[in-house]
Amino acid sequence: MANERLSSLLIKAGFLDRAGTIGRKRFARAVSESPAARAAGRSYSHTYVSRWIAGTVPRDDATRTAIAQAVGAALGRTVALDELGFRRPTTADPQAGLAYPGSAEDGVVATAQLLDADLASAPVVLSAPTNVAAWNEASVSWLVGSQPPVGDRAEGPSRIGLSDVQRLRTMRETFDRLDSTFGGAHARNSLVQYLRTELPLLLRAAGTADVRRALFAAAGESTQLAAWMAYDAGLHGLAQRYFIQALGLADAGEDRLLAASILDAMSHQASFLGRYREAANMARAARLGTDSIGIPILTSHFHIMEARALARIGDADACDRAMGSAVQHFERHRAGDEPAWIGYFDQAEIAAEMAHCHRDLGRADVAVEHAQRALTSASGDYVRSDFFVAMVLADSLIDRGDLDEGCRVAADALEVGEGLRSARCSSYVDEFRERLVRHRRSTAVRTFADSAQHFRLWRPSE
Fold first, then answer.
1. Pick from 397, 421, 341: which is nearest to 176 by CA?
2. What distance in Å separates the CA atoms of residue 321 and residue 306, rounded to the nearest whole number?
């Protein structure tokens, strides 16, 4: 497959004509005279150039670096290796995306590497476990402000404006709807492909400081969605890395509220994985990092994420305090004060979160009350969220001994879940299955288990 990206760069650099034919010998000389080629003792002919344009990937880093240097010298700017358009490597750096970026460009490089590894289905990334130290390092780095913000950029692959920022946000909104309705595994690869094609070029484009800050923030939102979708698909090490890079992009864009929300999402994942202390700490860090600019609804969410973690470890007093603070801040919220991306957090959502907490604290009656309120007030726009709270309701009904109603609610949820491709949904079903074990002799439970066999989420092998 022809390397159209490289051809386009060579045309912009003046090495090729629009037909892509004249100038290959001149480019070969420029590559041969680059610092990387001289250091490696390499020289190249026009035949090499033809092969690169046709899609052949140079085998060694020295050649790729030499090409980037030759193009960059002609364009008058640094050209990154991932701009050259060569096919993605079949191997990946096991540490790709794990470190918090020290600069905006570091974040662009790390994000591009991570997207490449994801698209190549590199096992060292897709099968990677989460790294507790990486959570801690990212939290501290963000809190102390270790990354300088972006500024004006005079040179780049193109020039960006606010329309490019809006385009990126619109695409994120589209994929967000697909994620909420069908689960993270449904359109995840399409989002990753889009981001790999668009994001590095946009982030390296020329533009004013204001536009570039807005773009980095939008990139943080999109990369956070990639993290959520990987998390929902059960790819936890990959999701952690996307979250870390999203945090760095938001930091570079000086969007403190978005960055805190990303840290809050990392807390959510840590709780899911049983790292409750780390989860509580990340939720607290998100709150601490936005104390001076706190938005009530965001602060409410930070408190409720801390409460979710505390409920799981059975710290009822601390959980109650966190839930109380969440409700107090939620009640202070005024419509329109919040960033658009937190608009989903409404009365139904906070009731659902409270239901989770009370279920985990063993307060079945209170959990049922909150879960029913969440389902009654839900907009219906978030199918997966409705599934989660329905399963929490079913859990709580079983816990208080209402087996018939618990099984009925679970059956209805499983019907809804037929369209969801989500590892998290499967985990909620597994929790419900475990609750039924002690009631396995019940007629209601046996009848439910028999009828549930035709639901995809109930079949463990699937």
1. 341
2. 10
Integer Cα distance of 215 and 236 in angstroms: 26
Q: Please give the pLDDT value at position 211.
A: 97
Q: Compute how many other C-beta atoms are within 10 angstroms of the C-beta atom of residue 158.
A: 12
Tens digit of pLDDT for each residue in 270-313? 999 999 999 999 999 999 999 888 799 999 999 999 999 999 99
In Å, what is the CA distance from 112 to each residue of 69, 271, 313? 19, 28, 37
Determine contact, residues 5/85, Cβ cutoff 8 Å.
yes
Structural tokens at position 274: 């049983």
Distance in angstroms between the alpha carbons of the first and the last residue of the chain: 36
145: left (phi over 0), alpha (psi -120 to 50) or beta: left
CA angle, residues 370, 375, 379, in degrees to nearest 5: 130
pLDDT tens, position by position, 82-140: 888 887 655 678 899 999 999 999 999 999 999 999 998 899 999 999 999 999 999 99
In tens, the pLDDT along 246-267 reads 999 999 999 999 999 999 999 9
210-213: long-range contacts at Cβ-Cβ below 8 A with a sequence spacing of 24 or more?
Answer: 211/160, 211/161, 211/162, 211/164, 211/165, 212/150, 212/151, 212/152, 212/153, 212/160, 212/253, 213/149, 213/150, 213/252, 213/253, 213/254, 213/255
Amino acid at 342: I
- Closest to 183 measured CA to CA, from 392, 426, 345: 426
Average pLDDT over residues 391-406: 98
CB contact at 8 A, 257 and 293? yes
The rounded distance, in Å, linking the Cα atoms of 48 and 56 is 9
Nearest alpha-carbon partner for 192 in 90, 106, 117, 97: 117
Evaluated on CA atoms 76, 80, 81, 83, the torsion sign reads negative
Cα–Cα distance, 269 to 282 (Å, whole number): 10
What gap in Å lies between CA 397 and CA 316, rounded to an integer?
20
Q: How many CB atoms lie within 10 A of CB 310?
A: 27
Q: Which residues contact 426 (CB under 8 A, 6 or more apart)?
A: 457
pLDDT of residue 462: 46
Contact 7, 53 (CB under 8 A): yes
Could you tell me the pLDDT band of residue 198, with boundaries at 50, 70 and 90? Answer: very high
Mean model confidence pLDDT for the chain: 92
pLDDT at 332: 94
Strands (E), 114-265: none
Q: Which residue carries 């840590």 as its tokens?
A: 270
